Amino acid sequence: MDHEELLKVRAAYDARMRRGAEPDAAQARVERTAAVVRQTVPGLGWNGVLWSDLDEETADAEIAAQVAHFAGLGATEFEWKLYDHDRPADLGARLRAAGFVPEPPETLMVGRTAELAGLPVAPPEGITLRVVTDEAGVDLMMDVHARAFGTERPQIREQMLSLLRERPDSLAAVVAMAGETPVSAARMEMRPGTPFAGLWGGGTDPRWRGRGIYRLLVAHRARVAAELGIPYLQVDASADSRPILERLGFAVLGVTTPYVWSGR
């Protein structure tokens, strides 16, 4: 993609996936004020700010307002998802001053679905793909993620179960199996009428890395998105994933950093 196309795609991403965000789980609620778009969810789930329109005069007061909002709901933490083109330029420093802690930055990347769906990828020897449609499949994914990322993810488990129950057409998840053992897993989330499908949670057991399984899961989800007529795939890529995705043809739209406020 050339620079002009990337700017158009980024503007579309901001408009459709941030300002026009939809809840990522059946029990979640997206709220819009004049300055922010945020998601709130009871119990397990993702609480946070998805988009903001701030300047040097309004930023600090709005940060304080969002802290008060989520604290008032009893949330133990929430995330302010900051993009490097958000205003004001020092918004990250203002969030830190308000008690937010930045997590490792991720690279916002996008690829054309049609091109990625045509990748010549064959499963490595001994690997089969299992499409996730039920709780047993979700638990296989959580088993892989615990080994791949070194942490349990109960919020993701609850989100996936919610989507499978209430909005199954918005989720496509898959597990790579070596016999009866899950070794890699990933999911794709889709919003009706939007031009982006988000690739999330791609993780491989360290003992199985370097065999092309991650690439296989990207191609599988691209084919699903292509069949649904979704033109772009979007990824918040880790430092490990970025070079793989660049080799596959993904382009960089920017950098996003999760800033987390904890009330504990």
UniProtKB/TrEMBL annotation:
Molecular function GO labels: acyltransferase activity, transferring groups other than amino-acyl groups
Residue ranges constituting the N-acetyltransferase domain according to the UniProt record: 127-264
Record's keyword terms, sorted: Transferase
InterPro entries attached to this UniProt entry: Acyl_CoA_acyltransferase, GNAT_dom
Cross-referenced CDD domains: NAT_SF
Protein name per UniProt: GNAT family N-acetyltransferase
Organism of this sequence: Streptomyces subrutilus
Taxonomic path: Bacteria, Bacillati, Actinomycetota, Actinomycetes, Kitasatosporales
